[in-house]
Amino acid sequence: MKTILVVDDAPMIRELLKSVLEAEGFAVVEAVDGEEALQLCQDRKIDLSIVDIFLPKKGGLQVMGELIKKDKAHKFIAISGGEAFNPEGIVELAKPLVIRRTVSFAAAVVSAEITVEGVTAKHLISLDAFDQLTAGGYIGVTTLAESDVVKHWQPDVFIDATLSKKSVNYVVGYAPLVIGLGPEIIAGKNADYVIETNRGHYLGRIIESGKAAANSGIPGTIAGFTRERVHYSKARGAVEVLHDIGSIVKKGDVIAKVGHVSVHANIDGVVRGMIANGTVVPFGTKIADVDPRADVSYCETISDKGRNIAGAVLEAIMRRYNRAGQL
């Protein structure tokens, strides 16, 4: 059994990586700082080290440098919650329809920059800017044509995170590894892996052949509420936001208007999601989410569903490269 060392001072990150790696059959040892990591590498054989760049006592770059001096064949994956050492890029709509804007990199299209749980993304408008921005350690968010970005960037992993409910226009081979999130993406045809995004027992399951579960059309249950917590436009027009994310509202409050039509809160709670002010939407568009738990801190943190799906994507990447003998 191969052994992977996870070095990160954040317990949540260590726990997430450990659970994913152990599910793939690896033995995992953990270190909370650079000095402990170096000591563990002296005591046992390590096949791969996943190292946070920003560590207490000794930084990640220093740790990797010392280990390479001792063993030039030592393999690493460098990570960071503050700056992405291996940069990523996101292709987004010119006018994003995302409602959980405070925890979505899509918001950078409107605000130019956003930081979500310590990771910063910036909007870029050209392929040249893409190279400069990602070289600086940020995630790049662009509205350029996806095909142009893929051709220029040549990513190792392409992830379709649109939760597509329609057939997609790409196939396996679009990138070395293709991962799809959504019920109409076919594993083995459109993507190498599909991740189950439907809430329930199979949320986060990695599918290697076929589709994920069909869209139920029913939002996940929170504190006993499902459909009531999600709000849709009742007309076509520009959205006027009256209660933005973080606002505590009561049932019946007017939280937004679409054109001249009011959208009333269906329940008491906190506005956890709200589409950007001024967005033009058709009838029936999801524009807001009221969380009945009324905990404002949830507005600034990624949900359990989001973390589950992200962990599954990481597991799928590790599975592919483990099978290929590249770990």
Task: Provide an overview of this structure.
By secondary structure, this protein is of the alpha/beta class. The protein has helices at about 10-25, 35-45, 60-70, 110, 125-135, 145-155, 305-325, and strands at about 5, 25-30, 50, 75-80, 90, 115, 120-125, 140, 155-160, 175-180, 195, 205, 230, 235-240, 250, 255-260, 260-265, 270-275, 280, 285-290. It has three domains: about 5-80, 3-Layer(aba) Sandwich (Rossmann fold); about 90-215 and about 305-325, no CATH class; about 225-290, OB fold (Dihydrolipoamide Acetyltransferase, E2P), CATH 2.40.50.100. It contains seven helices and 20 strands. A four-stranded parallel β-sheet has the order 2-1-3-4, sandwiched between helices. Strands 5-8-7-6 form a four-stranded mixed β-sheet. The protein has a four-stranded mixed β-sheet with strand order 9-10-11-12. Helix 1 (about 10-25) packs across helix 7 (about 305-325). The protein is globular, with a radius of gyration of 21 Å.
